[in-house]
Amino acid sequence: MSTWKSAVKINPPRTGSRYSRAALVGQLQAASQQPLVWISAPAGAGKTTLVVDYLASQAIPALWYQLDAGDTDPATFFHYLAQASYHLCKPDLPLPSLSPEYQGNLGIFTRRFAERLCADLIPPVVFVFDNFQELPPDSPLQPLFREFTAALPTGFQAFFLSRDKPPAWVAGFAARHAVCLLDRADLRLTEAESIGILRLLGNGSATQRSEADIRRIHLAVDGWAAGLILMYRAWQKNPDLPLPEEGDNPELVFDYFASELLERLPATTQTFLLQSALLPTFSVAQVSQLTAHPQAERILQNLYDRNFFLTHSNGAEPVYTYHPLFREFLLKQPEFGIR
To answer: 152, 211, 241, 196: which is closest to 46 by C-alpha?
Structure first.
């Protein structure tokens, strides 16, 4: 029986009007024979919208599964996965049940489940596992995704959307040239895409802002899709809102950072972010001295791996830099007494 929870977990998200990013859609088309696609980018980078656009443009049926922190029970996972398959195949499809005989070897069960599920489907079909970063690292489901993807026949793909970098098990697919990886650099908007998105959202009214103005917005958000859209919404509320200048950005952007990022972190990591933002750029040695945190390097690497609007240079001693809007948000938190 379908429930409210299952409806949330297994239905694709609504994205509204979409600007098609032809270059990225082309990359996904070129990777259509790869069993695994991993898209890793910061919050609001357009991961979900890209996949929805790709699937729609190619008329590819998909099974969509929204992961969350509660996904720790294999039996519940396979129950929802079976429910998600009902719009692709017959509801009475005899999928394997996680009986006691399989409890000692979930890998074998996962492969048989995937094989039976695909047997009644006509390829191409894509299985989308969204918000993978919400799955706890120690969840018993983690190794099952490797088995599920490895069991997919030709014409079937598993897409993983995450704010985090791929886990270690993806390396095996990479070694076999069986994975397509898209990261934050790939999803960063080009100037032409920013102009196209605003014109689409404004249904032509965005032309009231010159292309020169939109370019300034594009530079301010540094290719970040959600930032561009949030600034557009701020214009809708206040047409006289000035263009973003340093230290003067819409509250909608800051509210997004607060709800999607800062509030979800442990207090110690929040404090580290607020302290490290005092430096425009910094090395591990510099931030260690500033914060006096013994695990500064580990925290920085973790934030970088989780796409926390943090980049670093290559070299023997990397230099880290926060996204300018994210740094400004951190500097204006009450802890600094600036608001």
So the answer is: 196
Nearest to residue 234, comparing CAs of 248, 215, 219?
248
137: Cβ contacts below 8 Å, ≥ 6 apart: 167
- Taking the complete model, does pTM exceed 0.90, yes or no? no
CB atoms within 10 A of CB 181: 17
What does pLDDT average to over the chain? 87
CB 39 within 8 A of CB 78: no
Beta-carbon contacts of residue 131 (< 8 Å; ≥ 6 apart): 66, 67, 68, 161, 162
Q: What's phi and psi for 172, nearest 5 deg? A: -65, -40
Q: Is 336 helix (H, G, I), strand (E, B) or coil?
A: helix
Strands in the chain per DSSP E: 36-40, 62-66, 125-130, 156-162, 179-182, 310-312, 320-322
In order of their start, the domains of the chain are: 4-187 (3.40.50.300), 191-255 (no CATH), 261-336 (1.10.10.10)
- Reading across the β-sheet that carries 62-66, which strands appear in turn? 62-66, 125-130, 156-162, 36-40, 179-182
At 2 the three-state DSSP class reads coil
Q: Which pLDDT score is estimated for 319? A: 95
Q: Which residues lie below 8 Å from residue 73, measured CB to CB, with a gap of 6+?
A: 140
pLDDT at residue 67, as a whole number: 93
DSSP notation for 97-163 = P--GGGTT-HHHHHHHHHHHHHHTSPSPEEEEEE-GGGS-TT-TTHHHHHHHHHTPPTTEEEEEEES
pLDDT digits (tens, 9 = 90+) for 22-56: 999 999 999 999 999 999 999 999 999 999 999 99
Determine how β-strand 179-182 pairs with β-strand 36-40: parallel
